[in-house]
Design a protein that fits this description.
Layout lengths: L1 H26 L9 E4 L2 E5 L12 E7 L5 E10 L10 E5 L8 E5 L8 E2 L4 E7 L8 E9 L7
Parallel strand pairs: 1-3
Antiparallel strand pairs: 2-9, 3-8, 4-7, 4-9, 5-6, 5-8
Bound molecules: calcium ion.
The site of calcium ion has 8 residues, from loops.
C-alpha cells in the first residue's frame, strides 16, 4: 500500500510539473527576429532573422539601434554562430559606430567565437549581417542597452 501511494504521489508530482512547464511555455511570448529594422529603445534584444532557427542564405540585414540621447549603446552577445572562415568571407556581421557604413566600423565577426562587448561613442549603432549561398547557422542574439558614457578623468 505504501508503495502504491508513493508511485501515485510521484505521478501527481510529475504531471503537476509537466503542467506547469506547459503553462510557462504558453504564457511566454518568444520574441520574433526579423531581417533588420529600427530598434529605438532604452534596451532590448537584437537577433538574426528567425533566431534561434537558422538564418537565410543570400541575405543582407541591417539593424539600426537608437538609445536615449546622451547615452551610448552597449551591445553584449549572448549567442554567436555564423559560418566560420578565417577572413569572414562568407557570412559575417559588421558593427558600426553610428547609423552609416561610412562611419567607423567596430568590427567584422563570423564563426562561433562570441565577440566581446561593443560600445559606441554616441547613442546610435548599426549592425549589418551578410550571408552567402552555402552553409547557414543559428546566427546571433545580443542584448543592447543605453548606458552612460565613460568620461575619462571623471
Ligand atoms: Ca553561408
Amino acid at each position: 500500500m505504501m508503495r502504491v501511494d508513493c508511485i501515485w504521489g510521484l505521478l501527481l508530482l510529475l504531471s503537476l510539473s509537466l503542467g506547469w512547464t506547459k503553462a510557462q511555455e504558453t504564457n511566454y511570448t518568444r520574441p520574433v527576429f526579423y531581417c533588420g529594422g529600427d530598434l529605438v529603445a532604452e534596451s532590448g534584444f537584437v537577433g538574426s532573422e528567425d533566431f534561434p532557427s537558422f538564418y537565410k542564405p543570400n541575405s543582407k540585414c541591417t539593424w539600426r539601434i537608437t538609445v536615449p540621447e546622451g547615452n551610448v549603446v552597449t551591445l553584449s552577445f549572448r549567442i554567436f554562430d555564423l559560418e566560420a572562415d578565417s577572413q569572414c568571407r562568407y557570412d559575417y556581421l559588421d558593427i558600426y559606430n553610428g547609423h552609416s557604413n561610412l562611419v567607423q566600423k567596430l568590427g567584422r565577426f563570423c564563426g562561433t567565437f562570441r565577440p566581446g562587448t561593443q560600445v559606441s561613442t554616441t547613442n546610435t549603432m548599426m549592425l549589418e549581417m551578410v550571408t552567402d549561398e552555402g552553409t547557414q547557422a543559428r546566427g546571433f542574439l545580443a542584448h543592447f542597452s543605453g548606458t552612460k558614457p565613460y568620461v575619462n578623468g571623471m
